Amino acid sequence: MAVFQSARGPLHFENLGTGQAILLVHGFTNYGLFWTPQLAALVHSGYRAIVPDLHGHGASKPADALCTVPSLAHDMTALLDHLAIGQAVVCGLSLGGMVALQMAVDRPDRVAGLIVANTRSSFSDPEMVAMADGWIAVFEQEQGPLKRLAATWPRLGNAAFRESAAGRAGYDVWARILARLPGASLSQVARGMTRFDLRGRLAAIAVPTLVIAGEQDLLFRADEAREIASEIPSARLAVIAGAGHLSNMDSPDQFNCLMLEFLATHFHAG
Question: Of 44, 51, 166, 191, which residue is most buried, by most CB within 10 angstroms?
Answer without folding.
Answer: 51
